[in-house]
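Input for the complex:
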Amino acid sequence: MTTRRGRPPKDSDGTLSRERILREALSLVDEEGLDAVSMRKLARRLGVDPMSLYNHVDGKDALLDGVAEVLLAAIPAADPEPDLRTTMSALAHGFRAAMLGHPRAAPLVLTRRLASLTALAPVEAVLGPLLAAGYPPERAVHGLRAVLAFLIGTLMREVSAAPTFSNGSRGRLEDLEASGLPAVAAAAPYLAVCDHEAEFEFGLRILLDALAPG
Amino acid sequence: MTTRRGRPPKDSDGTLSRERILREALSLVDEEGLDAVSMRKLARRLGVDPMSLYNHVDGKDALLDGVAEVLLAAIPAADPEPDLRTTMSALAHGFRAAMLGHPRAAPLVLTRRLASLTALAPVEAVLGPLLAAGYPPERAVHGLRAVLAFLIGTLMREVSAAPTFSNGSRGRLEDLEASGLPAVAAAAPYLAVCDHEAEFEFGLRILLDALAPG
DNA sequence: TCCTCTAAATCTACGCCGTAGGTAATGGAC
DNA sequence: GTCCATTACCTACGGCGTAGATTTAGAGGA
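Predicted:
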């Protein structure tokens, strides 16, 4: 009945579990980035032998899938809101907030094909109101996928962007002006910087105007 | 002294060059996938010592950046077309075609921050017509970024999707229907399959309707 | 012609990595 | 007490990226 079995370390606080492993993995990604993740380093942080991880996780890839699901689970459920547009907007903002909360781990969600039930919860949250509003299922799925594609694309740019230093963008501005491409040079001041928040709202509004007017 | 060492004959067929390395790297990605790329394996395919690659490429990461640029360079330049919408649509389709031509390598373009001049050519090709059509630069950049985000998101799904087997989608369909989520179950037949072409056109039309009507 | 000088290819070696296979210890079930 | 599943640990293998030193073919000046 209880999951407590096998050989515990001398300290009961040091017992391993899938949850503890995933939590520590997420911290590791947050602190050192995705490339720095290795089974050995993760085990070191947990004060444990590397091979012990394999009792709780199927391998490195499955570990990263697990971390992605932890991130996905952080999306708040939308209030049962009568307004379709408000619901979709809230979910989009929730998704974005969850990713921006762990920018270095976000690519795990944005680039992996997740087949778990956790990944379906937000889908249900969008699809439900769309169907309730009378959308034919086919069109609802189309709309969901269009918004999701935009979210993924925007967030990918957002989380992979180098943090903007005040003088960092100046070097970039000069590069753009010196590119020899007339339109790029003309729009250089706007290309050199990126207000992610504004870009997000701009694109989301266009899509929601088309999909959930009102 | 039978082993060949030092600088090779000038114009032999076995001479290394950045272009030859990048071309072989792209082939390797196409055939075995991104994870299978290693400096050592690439060198083996080129019949060369692994360390020789470092005379032409700054390291593995720079190598992959180079491959990404090769992909980007494959986007055909748009005809000087008077119609703004046609131009943008052509570039979007060109981008998609270039990525679908090398689906396993596409993530290199879609997930990396590319700062090269090669990456700016398509930007110029979109920005030029937008500015010529009288769009203020700020709005032109906004529009460009919105479309690009959608393109990246859609293509990411498209290239990471497992090839659809006739019975593969059937297993997926059953999973969705058994998920216990009512809206997901109701729309399951449409969630189980994905006509990427149609999704692409659907989302692109929405964005172009908003940005380049006509 | 010979003599540098340089760039390219090679060799060696280090410290990582993921994980297969095997072993010892622990506590619940009987 | 005895068994057995579970878990932690250990060893080892093959592969990885690449720093550093070494060798050599050709270029350019004397």
